[in-house]
Design brief:
11 helices; Glutathione S-transferase Yfyf (Class Pi), Chain A, domain 2; globular; six-stranded mixed sheet; Rossmann fold; alpha/beta; binds magnesium ion; binds adenosine-5'-triphosphate
């Protein structure tokens, strides 16, 4: 992974944003402005440029396209820079069904090799409440640090879809075919589970450490997997599939597979959802994300770009302060937004940070 940082960004026809050229600092960039003016849209535009998809659920081209835009196309123009001042122009044109991307002036299907972490502390609630969000959190973060996992997960998803498709046929004439393809399905399941366990083992030492580093409180934090097959052999999963087979044919899908596995965030050994206050849940969730950033650095000797969307809700002033101190001493590039006046005052104290003010989609750099 290369250590690219975003240097310049201009987007045209993206949501309510004006095509201003934004010139970013290598360290902390504060994006200020009142509600509904376009702060999150700036983070989203950068996310779409790098990952070709949004961090917002159910958002794609029709939602991105500015409603007042003159043409049905979105343009991205940007320059990334590394620590040796090497520059990488990256641009693109998005339409409803197609898009074209250019790296260093040449057409490219490849994405720019740069990591990105999106932090929206409101997600802390969803993380604690929704198993699907936790699964997706692990899958997307692990995929970003492991191409092998990403590829195998996509194969698994295809195999599962194929299996469910065969199971759903009535009357079912595909028993033999399902049984014949199960060994491959089982093999992928066990491999993915082992990779998930490895990932959690790698991230865990960083969570407690990060919680202490940010909030100066000693608590033991860890994320653990809740899976029927964790640590088990292929034979064990085969036994489960066999036991469920007749039921699965009746209901028309795979009732247990590793896509149903879940994760628990433990706070001093207790489920943080049952035990922690909302503030503590948010602190734990933030520590998990920053621990991931540490792990990313450990693996790639470089940092991802960190997008932080309105972090202030539910954390008290003391804890914001601690978080800002943490960001100030960190080496990664941060784009952080807020509409909160008091948090804004704290952010403004950060020496050397660049500040932008967004009004009605138009962004001005404050000196
Ligand atoms: N496709 C679109 N075309 C034009 N405007 C859009 C489009 N999609 C969203 N908007 C507008 O973008 C604005 C929201 O921008 P954004 O979510 O970035 O606000 P924000 O500054 O982050 O606000 P908050 O502080 O409330 O989070 C809204 O006014 C919305 O109407
Ligand atoms: Mg916002």
């Amino acid at each position: 992974m290369h250590s690219w940082k975003i240097n310049k960004l201009q987007v045209t026809n993206f949501r309510n944003l004006q095509p201003d050229v934004l010139e970013f600092s290598d360290s902390i960039n504060c994006i200020l402005g009142e509600n509904g003016n376009g702060k999150t849209n700036i983070l989203e535009a950068l996310h779409v440029l790098i990952k070709r998809k949004s961090f917002r659920k159910n958002a794609s081209f029709p939602q991105y396209l500015g409603i007042d835009g003159e043409s049905p196309e979105i343009y991205f123009s940007s320059v990334f820079k590394d620590e040796n001042e090497n520059k990488m122009p990256c641009s693109g044109k998005m339409r409803d069904k197609t898009s074209e991307w250019y790296l260093d002036g040449k057409p490219s299907k490849r994405k720019l090799d740069v990591g990105i972490v999106f932090i929206n502390p409101f997600d802390s609630n969803t993380f604690h409440l929704t198993p699907a969000f936790r699964r997706n959190w692990v899958d997307s973060h692990l995929s970003q640090v492991s191409d092998v996992y990403k590829k195998l997960l996509s194969q698994y998803t295809q195999m599962l879809r194929f299996r469910n498709n065969l199971l759903s046929k009535k009357p079912n004439k595909f028993r033999e075919q399902i049984l014949a393809s199960d060994p491959q399905f089982i093999k992928a399941s066990i491999e993915l589970t082992n990779m998930r366990i490895d990932f959690l083992n790698q991230i865990n030492p960083f969570i407690t450490e990060t919680f202490f580093k940010i909030f100066s409180e000693e608590h033991e934090l860890m994320i653990s997997i809740d899976s029927k097959v964790a640590g088990s052999s292929e034979e064990f999963l085969q036994k489960i599939l066999q036991e469920n087979f007749e039921k699965d044919i009746i209901i028309g899908h795979t009732s247990y597979g590793i896509h149903k596995d879940d994760y628990v965030l433990l706070f001093d050994g207790l489920n943080s959802f049952d035990y922690c206050s909302l503030g503590q849940q948010k602190m734990s969730y933030l520590s998990l994300l920053f621990a991931y950033i540490e792990l990313f650095r450990y693996k790639f000797k470089t940092f991802p770009i960190v997008l932080i969307d309105d972090v202030s809700g539910e954390l008290d002033r003391f804890r914001w302060g601690r978080l800002i101190d943490y960001l100030e001493t960190s080496k990664f590039q941060v784009l952080i937004t807020t509409a909160n006046e008091e948090f804004k005052k704290e952010l403004e104290k950060i020496e050397g940070s660049v500040k932008f003010f967004v009004t009605n989609g138009s962004t001005q750099k404050l000196s």
